[in-house]
Q: What sequence folds into this?
C-alpha cells in the first residue's frame, strides 16, 4: 500500500477518530491506509453526530438507527447504553433490510451474537462491530484506544493528538526517535477545508500558532489522504435506484463479501484500483 500524497518510504502514518456505531467506509479506509489507528474514546461525546447512530436504507428511504445513551457531558468511554431493547429492534431492521443480499448469511451469526448480548458501554458495542469489519476487510492496522494511553485528556486538540501519537508509537513499533517527516498524522481526506480544527488558533499559550503548528512543533507532520467514496452494486435497493453513499460499512460487506476489501481500497483512486487489479 503506497503512502498517501507521496510520503517518503518509511514514514509512519497515524490516524485517529472517535469510535462510532456502524461507521461508514471513510472510517475504515482511513484505518486501512494508516500504520497505527487510535480510537479517540476519551474525548467529549457529541450528541446527534455519528458516535451513537448510523443511517440505513429501509422501506424505501434512509432512516437513522440510534443507540439510546445516558445523558451528560462525560467522555465517549463513559457513555452507557440505556435501552437494550432498542438494539434488538435495530437487529430486526438490519435483517429485514439485508436478508436478501448475497453475503448477509455469512456474517449474520456474528451480528446476531452482538445484538443479543447486553452491552453496558456504547464504546464496547461500537468496537465489537468495528472489529468484525476490520477482520472481514483484512485491515491489520494496530487499533489502540486513547483511554489506554491516557486516562482523561487535559490538552488542546493539537497537543493532545501529538501526545497520543508519542505514546502510541513505542507500543507498536518499539522505542524510536520521532523526528521531522518520520511520523505523519493523517488528518482527513484531501483537501483540508479552511475551517478544519487543525487550522484553527491553538490555546493562547501557544504564541498564536494553529493546532497544526503545535503538532508539527512536537515532531508530528500533518497530511491528508486521497478518498473518493467507492460506488458498488447495492442489491437491496429497488431496480434503478441511485447509489446510497455513507451507509454502514456492512452495506458493502453484505453485498460483496470477499470482494469488499478491493472495493474499499479503490477509494484511493486509479492507482489503488490498478494495484488491486481484478479484485475490483
A:
Amino acid at each position: 500500500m503506497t503512502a498517501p500524497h507521496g510520503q517518503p518510504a518509511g514514514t509512519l502514518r497515524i490516524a485517529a477518530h472517535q469510535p462510532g456505531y456502524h461507521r461508514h467506509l471513510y472510517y475504515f479506509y482511513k484505518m486501512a491506509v494508516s500504520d497505527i489507528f487510535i480510537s479517540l474514546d476519551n474525548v467529549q461525546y457529541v450528541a446527534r453526530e455519528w458516535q451513537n447512530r448510523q443511517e440505513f436504507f429501509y422501506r424505501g428511504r434512509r432512516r437513522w438507527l440510534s443507540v439510546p445513551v445516558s445523558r451528560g457531558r462525560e467522555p465517549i468511554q463513559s457513555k452507557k447504553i440505556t435501552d437494550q431493547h432498542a438494539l434488538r429492534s435495530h437487529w430486526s431492521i438490519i435483517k429485514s433490510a439485508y436478508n436478501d443480499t448475497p453475503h448477509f448469511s455469512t456474517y449474520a451469526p456474528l451480528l446476531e451474537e452482538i445484538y443479543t448480548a447486553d452491552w453496558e458501554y456504547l464504546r464496547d458495542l461500537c468496537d465489537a462491530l468495528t472489529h468484525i469489519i476490520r477482520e472481514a476487510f483484512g485491515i491489520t492496522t494496530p487499533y489502540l484506544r486513547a483511554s489506554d494511553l491516557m486516562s482523561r485528556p487535559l490538552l488542546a486538540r493539537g497537543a493532545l493528538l501529538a501526545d497520543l501519537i508519542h505514546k502510541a508509537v513505542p507500543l507498536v513499533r518499539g522505542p524510536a526517535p520521532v523526528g521531522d517527516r518520520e511520523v505523519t498524522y493523517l488528518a482527513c481526506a484531501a483537501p483540508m477545508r479552511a475551517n478544519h480544527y487543525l487550522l484553527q488558533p491553538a490555546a493562547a499559550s501557544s504564541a498564536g500558532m494553529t493546532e497544526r503548528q503545535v503538532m508539527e512543533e512536537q515532531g508530528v507532520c500533518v497530511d491528508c489522504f486521497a478518498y473518493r467514496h467507492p460506488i458498488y452494486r447495492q442489491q437491496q435497493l429497488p431496480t434503478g435506484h441511485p447509489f446510497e453513499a455513507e451507509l454502514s460499512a456492512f452495506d458493502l460487506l453484505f453485498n460483496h463479501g470477499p470482494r469488499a476489501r478491493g472495493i474499499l481500497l479503490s477509494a484511493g483512486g486509479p492507482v489503488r484500483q490498478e494495484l488491486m487489479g481484478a479484485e475490483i
In short: The first strand starts at residue 12 and ends at 17. Residues 1-51+132-280 form one domain. The longest helix spans residues 157-173.
